[in-house]
Each structure stands twice: as C-alpha cells, then as structure tokens.
C-alpha cells in the first residue's frame, strides 16, 4: 500500500480543491448562471451587460465591440452581409451576449424592411452596426440608410463592420445625439421624409425623438416607425403614446430579447398623417 507523507497529502488536497473550485466557477460562468438568467430580463441584462462585460474587458484588455469586430474579421467573408450577420449572431450566442437586435427579432425587422422596400431609412442607435447591415443588405438600389450613434468608440467599430459587409455606399453613419441631428436632417442630408425609422437607442428617447420627428416634418402619411425593446428593457411612455394616438396605427410583434428566452418584441406603427 502506498503511504504518502502528511505534507504530500496536504498538497494533493490543496491542488484537488483548487481544481474543483476552478471547475465549479467555470461551470457557473459558462453554463449555470447564463441558463438561470435567460428567463429573467433584468438579471440577464445585469449579468451579460454589466458583470461579464466588465470582467472580460479587464481580463482581455479590450472592449466588447472590439471582440465582436474581431469575430467578424475572422469568420465573415468580405462583401457578404449575410456572413457578417451570421458571424455576429454566432459570437453572441456562443461567446458573448451583446445588445444587437439579434437573429430572432432580426427576422421580423427583415420582413418589415422587405415589405416597405424603403428609399430613405433612419436608424437611431447603431452600436456595432449589426442591424445596420441587416437593413442595408435588403435595400433597393439607390436607397439610403442614415444611422445615428453618439458613442465614438461604437461608431468606429460600426464603420468597420459596415465596410466589411461591403455596404458603405448605402449607409451614412452620423456621429452624435439623435436630439441634435433630427432637426438637421432636412438641410444636412437633403431628406424630405423617411419611409422607415428603426428606433433602437436609449429607451427614454423613443418618445421625445418621435415627437421631434413629427415636428420636423420627417414623417409622411404611410411612414413606418419600428421600435425595438418595447417590452425589455421596455418603453412604456412610448407604447402608451403610439397606441393611443389617432395619428398612428400600431401593432406589436411578439418575440424574445436578443439571444435569450425573455419576452420582448417590436412595435410597428404606421403614421397616418
Ligand atoms: C441597443 S444599441 C443599438 C443596437 C443596434 N441597433 C443593433 O441592433 O445592432 C443602442 C445604441 O444607441 C446609442 N444611443 C443611445 N442613445 C442615443 C442617442 N440619443 N443618440 C445617438 N445614439 C444613441 C448607444 O450608444 C448604443 O450604441
Ligand atoms: C469562428 O467560427 C468557428 C466555427 O463556428 C468558431 O469555433 C470560432 O470560435 C469563431 N471565432 C470567433 C472569433 O468567433
């Protein structure tokens, strides 16, 4: 029988404890917590958007948008928007959640864009350019998408993602706050009205920016507003306005918060003039 000295046994116990501790933490991080939080919107956002993001930023000395761009450059084909969308969805499902509209709600977005076949589109909130690529790839020739982003680091990444998809011609990325740019749309970009507006910036801006677009005459009879995240994180004041106003005909499309099983959806509202 093998007899180990007391010191050796203590070392073995210590090493064994460290390995099981590390395995347990890894299982919690990769599997247990993500599975547990995917049914709860608030917890999912705190876990993915605060805790994991900060931890990975510190560990890798990079940012989530940089890591997302890296995944695009590794796994997407230049000039192929579909491969860009797929590389981002794969990255966000298997590696790291991110606040893109995502694949599930993305299909609803695609069908609205295809149905309207818009010539002029405004997107509020670019982030890394995921939805920008999704929309722009479906636009008819000569159509234009203006997308607004006030975070210069996100805008810099989005430019590269859009260029990787080969869509720079169709997309004009404008850096700055929606409240500042909406009143300048007509004179700066020669816009008459938008056929489609995709609202996906900070949730408390949906309502004031909608009223601003009305005041600035950027909506015509038939213009469509499509708003993301109306349930999670939620936009109660916007929903209440758009659903009760006689100037809009509004419909809810039920879906899930990107890359989770939490209910969320898109609200499609047609302006009646
Ligand atoms: C949910 S993310 C957009 C995701 C993107 N539409 C997608 O699906 O890939 C929201 C973005 O809006 C930007 N943002 C928030 N408020 C804004 C504002 N008032 N003007 C311009 N950008 C804004 C944020 O910096 C953030 O990048
Ligand atoms: C690229 O795709 C492969 C195969 O799907 C995957 O294993 C890899 O992690 C992806 N790379 C990045 C950086 O997302």
Automatic annotation (TrEMBL):
Organism, per UniProt? Seriola lalandi dorsalis
Q: What is this protein called?
A: catechol O-methyltransferase
- Binding of Mg(2+) occurs at 200, 228-229
Free-text comment on the cofactor: Binds 1 Mg(2+) ion per subunit.
Looking up CDD domains in the UniProt record yields: AdoMet_MTases (cd02440)
Please give the superkingdom of this protein's source: Eukaryota
Which co-factors does it depend on? Mg(2+)
- Membrane-spanning parts: 12-32
For this protein, the record's InterPro entries field holds: Catechol_O-MeTrfase_euk, SAM-dependent_MTases_sf, SAM_O-MeTrfase
Which residues are recorded as binding S-adenosyl-L-methionine?
101, 131, 149, 200
């Amino acid at each position: 029988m093998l007899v180990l000295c007391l010191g050796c046994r203590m070392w073995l116990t210590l090493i064994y404890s460290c390995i099981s501790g590390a395995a347990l933490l890894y299982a919690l991080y990769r599997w247990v917590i993500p599975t547990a939080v995917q049914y709860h919107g608030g917890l999912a956002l705190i876990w993915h958007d605060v805790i994991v993001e900060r931890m990975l930023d510190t560990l890798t000395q990079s940012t989530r948008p940089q890591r997302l761009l890296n995944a695009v450059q590794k796994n997407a084909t230049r000039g192929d928007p579909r491969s860009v969308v797929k590389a981002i969805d794969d990255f966000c499902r298997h590696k790291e959640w991110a606040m893109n509209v995502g694949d599930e709600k993305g299909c609803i977005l695609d069908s609205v864009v295809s149905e309207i076949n818009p010539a002029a589109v405004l997107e509020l909130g670019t982030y890394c350019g995921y939805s920008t690529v999704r929309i722009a790839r479906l636009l008819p020739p000569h159509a234009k998408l203006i997308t607004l982003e006030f975070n210069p680091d996100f805008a810099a990444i989005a430019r590269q993602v859009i260029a990787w998809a080969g869509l720079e011609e169709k997309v004009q990325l404008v850096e700055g706050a929606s409240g500042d740019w909406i009143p300048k749309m007509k004179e700066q970009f020669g816009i008459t009205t938008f056929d489609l507006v995709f609202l996906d910036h900070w949730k408390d801006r949906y309502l004031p920016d909608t009223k601003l677009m009305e005041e600035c005459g950027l909506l015509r009879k038939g213009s469509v507003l499509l708003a993301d995240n109306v349930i999670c994180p939620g936009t109660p004041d916007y929903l209440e306005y758009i659903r009760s106003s006689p100037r809009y005909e509004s419909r809810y499309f039920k879906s899930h918060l990107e890359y989770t099983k939490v209910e969320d959806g898109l609200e499609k509202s047609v302006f009646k003039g």
